[in-house]
Amino acid sequence: xxxxxxxxxxxxxxxxxxxxxxxxxxxxxxxxxxxxxxxxxxxxxxxxxxxxxxxxxxxxxxxxxxxxxxxxxxxxxxxxxxxxxxxxxxxxxxxxxxxxxxxxxxxxxxxxxxxxxxxxxxxxxxxxxxxxxxxxxxxxxxxxxxxxxxxxxxxxxxxxxxxxxxxxxxxxxxxxxxxxxxxxxxxxxxxxxxxxxxxxxxxxxxxxxxxxxxxxxxxxxxxxxxxxxxxxxxxx
Length: 236
What we know:
The protein is mainly α. It has helices at about 1-20, 30-60, 65-95, 105-125, 135-145, 150-170, 175-200, 205-225.
């Protein structure tokens, strides 16, 4: 029975955030596209995991100090890798579809992909628990993932989607905006993981919280700005 709970509580954070973000879309996307992007996001966790193992093996063998190696792995092996995989999920599933016809759609589909990715990640984390873990412990860890890792994935991918939308909506500064997209998403993701994994004391909690609050305000502004842009995206 606990294995069923692992799956249910692994998926729950993603579905709850999905309902929240879909309410922000003034022109609801086709359910088929939402399901497709979410599924591709789930599948993107597989190559991401494989690449992370490869990067860990690589960075562990570099002639560097342990902390330096860990930082490189966090920012490149985890953060950049996962953001690229979530982006590729959207590129493969949505970029050629006519449903993607507004700048804000890119941002929304990036969030949906991220939630699919997080659903697999959360489920894997729960399966790492003792099979005899009480339901309360499973639900508690799921709640922590809902407020932490799952929210992080949505914010990082929304940030990436915002700058991608700017790049595809206007040819001017396109390369700069694409570079910003991956840079800012990677930095947000990386600094969160760095504080969670390496920091000690109260900063371990308050630094990620400050990052979340600042980014959430920006994402709210970004959604509003993209909704006001009426030009169709030129996706290739």
